[in-house]
Amino acid sequence: MSKPKQLATSDIRLFTIPNLMTCGNLACGCLGIVFSFRGDLLLAGTLILVAAVLDFLDGFAARLLRQSSAIGKELDSLADMVTFGVLPSMIIFQLLEKTSTTIDIGNMLISFSAFVLSIFSALRLAKFNIDTRQSDSFIGVPTPANALLVASLPFILRSNPELEPWIVNQQTLIGYTLLMSYLLVAELPLLAFKFTTFAWKANQVKYIFLLVSVILLFLLKFAAIPLIVAIYILLSVLQRFIKIQ
Predict the structure, then answer these.
(1) What's the pLDDT tens digit per position in 181-196?
(2) Which of 79, 232, 223 has the alpha carbon at shortest distance from 146?
(3) Does residue 66 contact residue 23 with C-beta atoms inside 8 Å?
(4) Residue 6 in this model has a pLDDT that exceeds 60
(5) What was the pLDDT predicted at 198?
(6) Which of 7, 161, 180, 241 is such that its CA lies 20 to 30 A from the CA of 150?
(7) Burial 194-217 (b: 16+ CB within 10 A, else e)
(8) Among the listed ranges 12-16, 39-43, 159-163, 171-175, which one has the minimum average pLDDT value?
(9) Helix, coil or strand: residue 100
């Protein structure tokens, strides 16, 4: 019988700064689920936004402080599953519940379909952990991108109530759930915002995307987020196509 693999001391340190940030991400996800149950989708969406910042910073801190570890990688995926997998499904579930005028098995199944997004998020995260191709880029839409888009919906509904018939709509929500579930696990190479250097030449596409995103957010507020995610996917596809050519 083979002996279990020995971990380096750096791999078994629990309370590093990056790991504490990841735990903050997880706490946001847990609290967001509670607020979703209570119907406060704005606060649930806000917690996804906070968690996304922590998710970006924990990786950045791990590289800056040289505190990357095997435990940190696993913890990151577990936190992401709650915050960027289960919580977005809860928000979609609550929005689907608003479209039901009667309580019957058909409407219940329609509302429960929101959790297909959680299942595919789990598959995407499990795939990411063992896919060595995803060190410098992503294969499939990252779970935080999906979560940010879902998080923007309550804010869009508040600032643009005229869009409610289009957003709080069974066809729209189910269509989004199925499309994004596919894109999460699709063999689609996408940009990863992991800066090994901050040089313009090596990161010009990333910098342009970030600049365009800031401008769109300034002009359109939360309504810009779905557009930014769409541009992110399109830009990644175009960059790959240009490289192939």
Answers:
(1) 999 999 888 877 766 6
(2) 232
(3) no
(4) no
(5) 66
(6) 241
(7) eeeeeeeeebeebeebeebbeebe
(8) 12-16
(9) coil
Q: What span, in angstroms and rounded, lies between the C-alpha atoms of 134 and 140?
A: 10
Q: What is the pLDDT of residues 31-86, one digit of tens each?
A: 999 999 999 999 999 999 999 999 989 887 887 778 778 888 889 999 999 999 99
At 176, list the tokens.
Answer: 């989004």
Domain-wise residue ranges, the chain: 10-244
CATH architecture classification, 10-244: Up-down Bundle (1.20)
The reported pLDDT for the residue numbered 7 is 55
Closest to 176 measured CA to CA, from 160, 210, 152: 152
* 189-191/137-139 β-pairing: antiparallel
* C-alpha radius of gyration, the chain, whole number: 19
Contact 123, 67 (CB under 8 A): no
The model's confidence at residue 205, banded by pLDDT at 50, 70 and 90, is: confident
Number of Cβ within a 10 Å radius of residue 111: 20
Give the per-residue SS3 of 198-244: CCHHHHHHHHHHHHHHHHHHHHHHHHHHHHHHHHHHHHHHHHHHHHH
0.90 exceeded by the pTM? no
Locate all alpha helices (DSSP H) within the chain, ordered by sequence: 17-37, 41-64, 70-81, 87-98, 105-112, 116-130, 143-159, 164-167, 170-185, 200-220, 224-244
Q: Which two tokens stand for residue 24?
A: 């903050």
* DSSP letter (8 states) at residue 190: E
